[in-house]
Amino acid sequence: MPLTPEVLLDRVIAALGDKILAHKIACGEATIEVAPADWLAVCATLRDTPALAFDLMMDLCGVDYSAYKEGAWEGQRFAVVLHLLSVRRNHRLRVRAFCGDDELPMLPSLMEIWPAVNWFEREAFDLFGIIFEGHPDLRRILTDYGFIGHPFRKDFPISGHVEMRYDPELKRVVYQPVSIDPREVTPRIVREDNYGAA
Asked: Model's pTM, two decimal places?
């Protein structure tokens, strides 16, 4: 039977001690926040401590907090969120670390701890520009080779700058400025006169 999130959180706190900056139960899962300097050590401890045994890295993603709380966010801009599962113990944990520098967001790669993190780190690099130091092959995975920018950053333009198409006369792919006129689409809402009346 899996542990309750509260009991799991107590075990994680006992194993990591002062390396945990913050902790809470969110969406039915234990969540901890750690410093970027402790990222590798914390993850190795979570995997190697028998009472925790987080042997499976389920997901890793980047987060851009620049527009969080309608721009009232005062902390670091970029974070990495890791979702772990213990197959042996049947419990889950969410781990978050903020990157120390907003201009060059960076964390150590977790490839030596969970090799399956490879493409997840590449995706966070491609979409958010987060660099994973020590990753053996950190390159774009979803956008085109010549793509400029990181499309999941809140300050990335919605329409982009260039579009790509195949030119049958040149028999190759060409890049050109975006030809779509930006517009705002507001849906027309039609409701009955007594909509929502009790």
From this structure: 0.81
